[in-house]
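Consider the following assembly input.
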Amino acid sequence: MHLTRPDLAIIQNWIKPSSRVLDLGCGNGELLYFLQEQKQVHGYGLEIDDQKITECIAKGVNVIEQNLDDGLSNFKDQSYDMVVMTQALQAMKRPDLMLEEMLRVGKECIVTFPNFAYWRCRFYLAVKGEMPVSKSLPHTWYNTPNIHLSTFRDFEQLCQSRNLRIIDRAVGNSEHESHWATNMWPNLFGEVAIYRVTR
Amino acid sequence: MPNAIPEDSVGIVEPQIARFNTPLELTCGRKLDRYELIYETYGTLNADRSNAVLICHALSGTHHAAGYHSPDDRKPGWWDAYIGPGKCIDTNRFYVVCLNNLGGCSGSTGPTSINPDSGKTFGPDFPVMTVTDWVNSQACLADYLNIDIWAAVVGGSLGGMQALQWSILYPNRLLNAVVIAAAPRLSAQNIAFNEVARQAIMSDQEFYDGRYADHDTIPRHGLRLARMVGHITYLSEHSMGDKFGRDLRSDKINFGYDVEFQVESYLRYQGDTFSESFDANTYLLMTKALDYFDPAASFGGDLSKALAQAKSNFLLVSFSTDWRFAPARSEEIVNALTEAGRHVSYACVESPHGHDAFLIPNERYEAIFSAFMGRVADKLEHANKKQGEVPCI
């Protein structure tokens, strides 16, 4: 059993067996399915896509239809060991408030998002003079759900300003390209930013 | 309809009657010494009796959930869209049981049955039922059918409340609960609508304090009004607007109080047919069972404590335009379940049909329902296969 997305393969290492996990924007339930089969994790995924909700149900992943922009007020303080949000923070109305909310509900949180300072993005913008379109950012500027794009550095500044502690940082590249340079200069060579954060 | 029974129908079905002589203790403090439950089954019970699904009906439902009683029937059972070969509750895989609840008027012991103490019909003397009483009687039916554990208990509206109560009262006797368009308890507004319906019935001159049978009559007028007001709460403003708008029956308005708008005509028709086929005392009793339903009450008002008793997996479904039991009501249940750490999935399905949506074909609803029930069946069949693989010594 393996995970198809490289960012999921990395973050599953950060989740302890038998922990309580909330996966915000859980998609087709790939991560939760892996965690419940391999690590006896008890989890719920929140999702709004009809098709993906059905896929979760079909594979026996607990999924709850909920719009994340409405907040997590239906979950109690510190009721989960880990709150995960992969590739969705940049699509939130207020990523900063979402991050705070994640750490209210969870003891720790994991977020992954596309790094807008990735060299291909920079190159695209610098040379073409257009908003970058790539495999990890496939939309055009006018229809993209990614309304709050940021970088490794931006995110770390946000954490610092909110007194949030970064426990782990990793770099996810879509083609599994693990180059020494990605870890040395993630802001330039990292395509996907992966963080584990606590208060 | 039907000229021929459709392929995806369970076909011609025949109700059966189970008789019970062990007294059933009721929540109200009284007991029923003897009672009968009428039920239907669809599909085949497997060898280890593990593929049984219980369907719980709503306010005016019956045991006739799917198929036809005769080739001349105009309509199939009330949930035929969701029960049958290849349908959400797939009768190729499940053995489906649906009964008429105690206090009903479709063949189970109820106000229209003969009271053995008096030799006359029970009428208003029939004890007021609660959802708990129904679940207890359904457990007796399960014993009677030799079903230890339901693969799933499924219901919409008041039926969903029974599924929820099952999970709390008999956590070891069901693996899954499907709770559709339900609420953890009625709101003041819900109770208010029920009270209007009851008043309509009880203030009918033909009601005779519930002893209308002794006078060879029925409170037709009151039942009709009760159904009309109830029916309004089952539809949405949108679906009524869509269906009738402000359409008139004739071309012009007549400045009178006869039926003028199509919606009036529809409501009167609904009321008329219902009042001829449904028992008034049963209607009163069913609305009371709804009003009294509050599983959290025995747990200090804490629904998550109540649901912490449960061990089953849950599927909750609500409908976007349902204002009788709005999506927020289902979400109360979902939140209590997640707080209690139970396995639960939830979807709010887009539908214009209000509360009635749970009975009506809908692509997304079917996809979710099928996905959930399909997995229930997969797990059962997988477990059976595994058991079969154990070598005999």
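Chain B has a mean pLDDT of 95. Ask yourself how this observation constrains the way the partners meet.
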